[in-house]
Automatic annotation (TrEMBL):
Record-linked InterPro entries: BglG_antiterminators (IPR050661), PRD (IPR011608), PRD_sf (IPR036634), PTrfase/Anion_transptr (IPR016152), PTS_EIIA_type-2_dom (IPR002178), WH-like_DNA-bd_sf (IPR036388)
One BP term from GO: regulation of DNA-templated transcription
Residue span, PRD domain: 287-393
Source species of the chain: Microbacterium betulae
Annotated protein name in UniProt: PTS sugar transporter subunit IIA
Length: 640
């Protein structure tokens, strides 16, 4: 039984947080419901006295402390294929003259045939990295390549453990094989490193600090084995020398290890690719390569125009340019930075992530480097932070306070509302008459201390002295109005853009994402909506980053809005099909025209929101047996 899938089951339940049926879990994991029940039994058997997964009429859910109990239990680890693969790779990395196939199979308690299968997986991994090679001479197998390439492979193994927002540094260190120094010591090192760099005028985000600490732990472990890095490539800059001094000093004081110059310079180089200098607006872009600065400005300008977003503020461009310069260094060093928030950013903020993908695409073309999903997620964090500056104002609703005048009572009430609800509503008018003209009040909300003659959804009765209950009611009503407006716009747009002739039930994922995109794209090509170039553009966009934004829905599309009109082709699979790292049942190929840029944002983000609710997705999939049924269910959910 796959230990990896058991752990994946726990991760899915933790991410969801509620009850999930065996059928929903089987769809996500690509196994039968019977297997799900077996996995639950196996997970709970690890801690017989304190079951990790609860079961009930609504399905399964993880106890709040379930994952922590598993980590703390110290229960023996069964040799899953992934565990075995890691042990084999560590053996190959540590043995300069290689390992004997038969002896290694005996040590891992597997057959020679199983070990040969594992070696094929190792060969595929090292071929993907391109810096190592697996060499075979009779029964002996050895890794050929530099010490730096071996460390990168260890780092890659550890980073592959990061899933569903998890960034457990101790787990990463164990997978990397670095356990010679205690976790507490590395905790001190990470804190001292951030403090020292802060004193030098740098800011290191927590993800970057943990990632660098992982590389330091690998370096310490390898150095203690007599496998230090001896060479220093190129002439180090003054900044790199300064970082190297800090790393070396802290490694000796906190970890008790004296690192050589090669290791110190390597770690300093990694730090340089991950630090961000605060106050970039005061520094200008003198620290940025002019080629990178020009590429970022061109990408931001095009994307701001294409998506109608405000991203051209100088300070934002400067900070993003510094980030991209670090990204370019990481690309050259093949020292990619992982982001545990990638999945949640994509599912929760699809429009922001899409803007980041577009920026990444422009940068890839102009700078000649590929940008991975995790790195795109960091760009999305920059974009989201910038857009949030204006979004807060845009999402606030206007409100009128109706409070008959009695000394300064209405002024006190307005002050309380502004203090408690300032992020949700903006008070634009205060009416102090006891007999206001209710019909003349045009704001989104009316907050009144007196009973209106005619009830209305937008009128909320509050007390003269605002209570927590009043705040909660106003907040809920404001959220309802915002959601109703969004979904109303979405409903109107979707009814315009769907076409009964561009609907396919029984989608077959055997040909992969590309085959599905070509099938759905072909239906739109026949209708003159797009051309073959748009279909190729959608395939190219998919290669950059998976468009599986939820566990049920993928929305492939091209980055260029070249359709003659906006249209969406829908494909529904009877059972989930693989899509990137996910499995989906609904694929919506979206073709957007230049004239419908605003519709892109409305349709794209809100469509993903509808399918983000598992119950909504399953209802549409179950009842959408034809185009009419699909559209009816979608519209019904939007209007509910």
């Amino acid at each position: 039984m796959s230990r990896q899938r058991q752990d994946r089951l726990v991760a899915v339940l933790l991410r969801d947080g509620g009850w999930m049926t065996a059928a929903a879990l089987s769809d996500l994991l690509g196994v039968t419901t019977r297997s799900i029940r077996s996995y639950v039994t196996a997970v709970n058997a690890r801690l017989p006295d304190r079951p990790v997964i609860a079961s009930g009429p609504a399905g399964y859910r993880v106890h709040p402390t379930g994952a922590a109990l598993l980590k703390e239990s110290g229960e023996p680890q069964t040799a899953s294929p992934r565990d075995r693969l890691h042990r084999l790779i560590h053996a190959l990395i540590d043995a300069d003259d290689g390992v004997d196939v038969h002896e290694t199979a005996d040590a891992l308690h597997v057959s020679d045939a199983t070990l040969e299968s594992d070696l094929a997986r190792v060969r595929a991994l090292v071929r993907e990295g391109g810096e190592l090679a697996l060499e075979r001479h009779g029964p002996r197998v050895a890794l050929a390549g530099s010490e730096l390439a071996r460390r990168r492979l260890l780092s890659s193994l550890a980073h592959d453990e990061m899933e569903d927002g998890s960034f457990d540094v101790e787990v990463l260190r164990r997978v990397a094989g670095s356990t010679s120094v205690s976790g507490d010591a590395f905790g001190r090192f990470k804190a001292d490193l951030a403090a020292e760099l802060g004193g030098l005028g740098y800011f290191v985000n927590e993800f970057a600090a943990a990632d660098v600490t992982l590389h330091v732990s690998i370096a310490v472990d390898r150095a203690r084995q007599g496998r230090a890095l001896e060479t220093v490539h190129d002439e180090p800059s003054a900044e790199q020398e300064r970082f190297a001094e800090v790393v070396g000093r802290l490694a000796e004081s906190d970890l008790g290890v004296a690192l050589g110059r090669g290791d110190r310079m390597h770690l300093a180089s990694l730090l340089l690719t991950r630090v961000v200098v605060p106050g970039a607006g005061t520094l200008g872009t003198s620290r940025v390569d002019p080629v990178i600065d020009a590429a970022v400005r061109a990408a931001v300008t095009r994307v701001s125009h294409a998506y109608l977003v405000a991203l051209e503020r100088e300070e934002f461009v400067e900070r993003l340019s510094l980030h991209v310069q670090n990204l370019a260094h990481r690309a050259r060093e093949q020292a990619w930075s992982r982001n545990p928030l990638t999945r949640s950013l994509k599912a929760t903020y699809p429009m922001i992530f899409e803007v980041a993908v577009s920026i990444a695409g422009e940068l890839s073309e102009r700078l000649g480097m590929s940008i991975r999903d995790d790195e795109i997620a960091y760009i999305a964090m920059h974009v989201g932070g910038e857009l949030e500056r204006g979004r807060r104002e845009e999402t606030r609703l206007t409100a009128t306070i109706v409070c008959p005048g009695y000394y300064e009572l209405h002024e006190l009430l307005r002050s309380s509302i502004t203090r408690s609800l300032g992020q949700a509503v903006e008070v634009t008018e205060v009416v102090t008459r006891i007999d206001p003209d209710w019909k003349a009040i045009a704001t989104d909300l009316v907050l009144t201390t007196i009973e209106p003659p005619t009830p209305s959804d937008r009128i909320v009765r509050i007390r003269p002295f605002l209570t927590d209950g009043d705040v909660e009611r106003v907040t809920q009503e404001a959220a309802r109005i915002r959601r109703a407006r969004r979904l109303s716009r979405l409903r109107a747009e979707l009814e315009r853009y769907f076409d009964a002739g561009a609907f396919a039930r029984g989608l077959d994922g055997a040909d992969g994402e590309e085959g599905v995109i070509r099938r759905l794209g072909g239906m739109l090509v026949e209708r003159g909506v797009i051309d073959d170039a748009y279909v190729e553009g959608a395939i190219e966009r998919e290669r950059m980053s998976s468009t599986a934004f939820t566990d049920a829905l993928a929305v492939p599309h091209a980055l260029r809005m070249t359709a003659t009109r906006t249209a969406i082709a829908i494909g529904i699979a009877d059972s989930p099909v693989p899509w990137g790292d996910s499995r989906v049942q609904v694929v919506a190929l979206a073709a957007f025209s230049e004239s419908d840029r605003e519709a892109f944002q409305t349709v794209f983000e809100q469509f993903v929101e509808v399918f983000g609710e598992r119950e909504n997705a399953q209802r549409i999939i179950r009842r959408g047996t034809d185009f009419a049924g699909f559209l009816d269910e979608l519209v019904a959910i939007i209007g509910s």
